[in-house]
Design goal:
With 181 residues, this protein is an alpha+beta fold. The protein has helices spanning 2-21, 116-129, 143-161, 174-178, and strands spanning 25-30, 35-40, 43-48, 61-63, 67-74, 80-89, 92-96, 112-114, 131-136. The chain folds into two domains: 23-136, Beta Barrel (L,D-transpeptidase catalytic domain-like), CATH 2.40.440; 143-178, no CATH class. The chain contains four helices and nine strands, in the order H-E-E-E-E-E-E-E-E-H-E-H-H. The protein is globular and about 40 Å long.
């Protein structure tokens, strides 16, 4: 009986140390800088991402993966391909995107987009080790949009007041020019 108890205690200790030794991939998404930082047993990585654009939101907080699909098609957004999807909250996922020119700035409907190769690498790491996901920060304000909006508002104010000498581009259709159409 005493030997059996010792063996059981030894097995529990062994299993506990094996679980503690298994590292999980730590994924941190910084929306302020549109970057993902990854720590895993295979190394450290920092990749550009795209989070939610204006009018949409990427949820902040701490998460664990709730599901993974090698290839998912978004029924909500016109069957858009989402390769190497790692779902973390409802329909929100980290996934590959073929719109790599948008990486590094907000461009998604709320998911976290990565370059396809980086998404595949992350997918295999999470599949092997598990993961914890943290999302912090706020999407950067688009300075270019703010400057353009300010310039358009100023030009419209000048047009309304009759002071529009030398301002080009909006004389025929000031509201369309103001709205950027």
């Amino acid at each position: 009986m005493r030997l059996m108890r010792t063996v059981v205690v030894f097995l529990f200790a062994l299993l506990g140390s094996m679980t503690a030794a298994q590292a999980t991939v730590e994924i941190h998404i910084d929306m302020s800088h549109q970057r993902m930082h990854v720590q895993s047993s295979s190394g450290s990585y920092s990749w550009p991402v795209s989070t939610a654009r204006s009018g949409y939101s990427t949820p902040r907080g701490s998460y664990a993966p709730t599901g993974m699909q090698r290839m998912h098609y978004s029924r909500k957004y016109h069957m858009s391909p989402m390769p190497h999807s790692i779902f973390f909250r409802g329909g929100y996922a980290i996934h590959g995107s073929y719109a790599t020119g948008s990486l590094g700035r907000p461009a998604s409907h709320g998911c976290v987009r990565l370059a396809p190769g980086n998404a595949a690498k992350l997918y295999s790491m999470v599949q092997a080790e598990g993961a914890s996901i943290s999302i912090t920060g706020s999407p950067p304000a688009s300075r270019r949009f703010a400057r353009a909006s300010h310039g358009r508002a100023l030009a419209y104010a000048q047009w309304r007041s009759g002071r529009h000498d030398g301002v080009r581009g909006w004389q025929a259709h000031p509201l369309e020019w103001l709205l950027g159409r």
